[in-house]
Queue: 3 jobs
Job 1
Amino acid sequence: MLIQLKTKNPIASSEITDKKIYQQRRKFLKYSAYSLSTLTATSFMATAFASRTSRAKMAKVQASEWQVAKQEWTSYEDATSYNNYYEFGLGKDDPKANSQNFKPSPWSVTVEGEAEITGTFDLEDILSYQVLEERVYRFRCVEAWSMVIPWVGFSLAALLRRYQPTSKAKYVEFTTLYDPKQMPGQKRAVLDWPYVEGLRIDEAMHPLSLMVVGMYGEWLPNQNGAPLRLMVPWKYGFKNIKGIVKIRFTERQPKTTWNASAPNEYGFYANVNPKVDHPRWRQAKERRIGDPWYASKRKTLLFNGYAEEVAGLYSGMDLTKFF
Ligand code: MTE
């Protein structure tokens, strides 16, 4: 079964959810919990991951429960066809068009650096130890657009703890697959490949930080970062690295792709902040994808609305300097 986690500052019902629809949805979730009661989330999902047939079955089970969701959240269509994934091209519709033959399975993740346990682990194994949860997060791109997406994933902290990071592990670095044959965008030097991102260890261990394997009750489509991506909802979208093949614990702040490419435009922290403008995009407001063309832009919230949960991570820091 999927566990729904509520944060202290949940997405306001006025923003996404009509109450009746919400109650209906709770009912759906209860039914689904009941019908899957003999299977744990992990065994169900891990088995589903192993074979395409059960993967399709899982999608079917979930799809029947998710019809209501389509009215509440950014539509599946928008969330899976308006993407940034430069490994598959620079246009918003390129990732979907160019990633259809990408193979997200089998997949393994290498763990390196300042940890007691290192090595290469099959994603199926990784999943078998994790409880999958559904979390509806606001998602804010530095290009000043936003979405609301029901992700399926597991706690990043729970994953990292399994490798027993040492006291020297102050940061965590994530790396995307490098495979220009499958990822044609990597044939062009628009970025320094492979894409890399990083978090301070306390950010990575924060309960909101999620490793994502699905969305809308289905496995991640290739264009959204299959089979494994990061979701740190209080940061700009570019921190949420896709197609992760490596996790490295480091003592020093790791290099990150966008920061290396334009350090005056993209910081390491990249916390959503309406008061700190990007040179090309004002950050005070955002366009919610799916809103009608005549709708006004929405006000951007500090830490994307998760300040109550995460502001403490940055106390004493000048957020205009550490942007
Ligand atoms: N990860 C990789 N490997 N390559 C990318 O180009 N783009 C980032 C991030 N993760 C990117 C990436 C940016 S700029 C954004 S806004 C989000 O992915 C977009 O995620 P979405 O396409 O699922 O909305």
Job 2
Amino acid sequence: MVSQAGGKHILITGGSRGIGRACAIMAGQRGWSVGVNYAGNEKAALETVQAVQKAGGRGIAIRGDVAREADVIAMFDATEKAFGKLDALINNAGIVGPKQAFADYSFERMQRMFEINVLGAYLCAREAARRMAKPRGGKGGSIVNMSSIASRLGAAGEYVDYAGSKGAVDTMTIGLARELAPDGIRVNAIRPGLIDTEIHASGGQPDRAARLGATTPMGRAGTADEVAEAAIWLIENGSDYLTASLIDVAGGR
Ligand code: NAP
């Protein structure tokens, strides 16, 4: 289905739906080969791959849980086996929890949040560093971490654990960017505001983006495509001097 030759190659975690899907399709439009990782929704992942191919790129769907080390290694292996050495990672997979008072959080809730949003993001970034660092035989490249403006707002009364998990992603971005710059890898984060995706329904608030989006300076929620524009800019030419940057795509929120 895919060949080894030419073009640039990317793995997008959580590429099956929402922001990750928009990034995958936009990368396809620009000629990238895209590893579309997903957790369980195979139908959505296959639809995204089809859309990537229709847009002119190459794509494969790769099931895997970012919180499991063996899955992470396997998803990078599968992408490189299909396309060749990686040029970029969009480290995007993430979850929210139900709106809840902090004092009522269960241990299991917090454990899941930090396993997926923090450990998962760190594992994927580590794997990308191992494969893309020039001193390790890689080509260099770009890592884009999908953080959230919750990291500076705190998400009080909603999900303070989620906000903290994204704070860890911001801090990783700055440290990794400085550590990996000599190895030819740029590391930046995007901090989306209220974006219209299914993540809000998964946290029990399907109307959240529309309801709170109306209260923002721009008076609306953002779209996944508007976040993808920034992510694709960060992996392509034109952003060459950016590293360790935290870019808010949040309509002024
Ligand atoms: P979404 O629509 O809920 O999509 C989540 C994606 O992540 C899906 O592709 C899902 O796969 C995948 N995923 C979930 N858990 C995973 C795991 N353990 N391993 C691998 N993949 C996993 O979410 P979204 O709104 O696009 O959010 C994407 C990222 O942007 C997240 O990191 C989120 O925190 C961040 N963000 C979103 C907003 C917003 O308002 N939407 C704002 C700020 C930041 P399946 O399809 O298989 O379930």
Job 3
Amino acid sequence: MEKKITLGIFGFGCVGQGLYNVLHHTKGINATIKKICIKHKYKKRPIDASFFTTDRNVLLNDPEIDVIVELIDDVPAAYEIVKTALKKKKAVVSANKKMIAEHFEELLQLQAENKVSFLYEASCCASIPIIRNLEEYYDNELLNSVEGILNGSTNYILTHIFQHNKSFEKALKEAQELGFAESDPRLDVEGYDAKYKLMIILVHAFGIVLHPGDVFNYGIQHLNDFDIRYAKEKNMTIKLIAKCRKVGNRVYALCMPKFVPVSDTLNKVNYEYNGLILEGAFSETQFFMGKGAGGNSTGSAVLSDISALTYDYKYEYKKMDQHLNYKYSNDHILEVFVRHNGKDVINPNDFESISVRYASSEYSYIIGKINLQQLISMKWLTSREINVILTENNT
Ligand code: HSE
């Protein structure tokens, strides 16, 4: 039976205000906001001051508040709040992918020990209901892969670069102004944010809990005009993709830029939209697309979790219970394009094979096959003169 819930919200930034807005315009949801904990007392806010406090204990110690909604971007503080709330047997809704990815193991344990729900649909691709679908619809499906665009800010930047010839800096600034980017935008640009989301997906798709250091992320920070021209000449764009795929009994995952032919499904995903392609053994492929960043779209996913709590919904972590025993491994061969400046830092012996070598006075590149494990160990990955992009030939 649907029950009435009382909310204590942490954070009233872009997502907090988005939630307030969607909650306000949604009829029939049995949830009311009692208090909102904020950091800066004197900031002007669009709703009555009586809602606000700067003391987290006002929310955490209030027995009437049965659901804590955590929407702040200070990871250590979010972790303390979520941990305390779960220990006090309050259900928690969070949108904090970094915090969840960094503390997954412990958060799983806390939920089990305290028998409370911890829901986080909004942490992954905002408006796309991917976690609930993986949990409920794909519960018995043997998934082969989940691949897609999991970061709205970088997709916004890449869309503007490719469709409107905008500069990287200008597009990033806009993504920040529109509230899509993280407060430290390097998390978006360097692929960390998409990786955290991928780690959450790995738990619900394959039952694998990892530490952020286990999964390779390489962002779009080294992208230059040469790479963009190369893609355009070949009728392709570049997208920052995150993927996890099962090969036999092993699963690998990564977050990297990829050349995507203009006719490809992922090229339908533009601006702050996210898109996911799921491949199952029996269901074959499905494509999910929706807004991946922004106040209202993220707020709508938070609202859906709140609504699920009115009937005591919990993730059952079905893929973990099925003891699929997949082994995570970065031992996988990729085909990559490596643009460099002709100086002798790239050792061809690190590659399994090289199919193209191109040299010019401006830039040079090679296309070759390399083991992901080997790629991760390459010192030149951090060089600004080098950029690595997955070719379109990787499945
Ligand atoms: N910075 C994130 C993005 C926000 O751009 O996708 C949504 O998680």
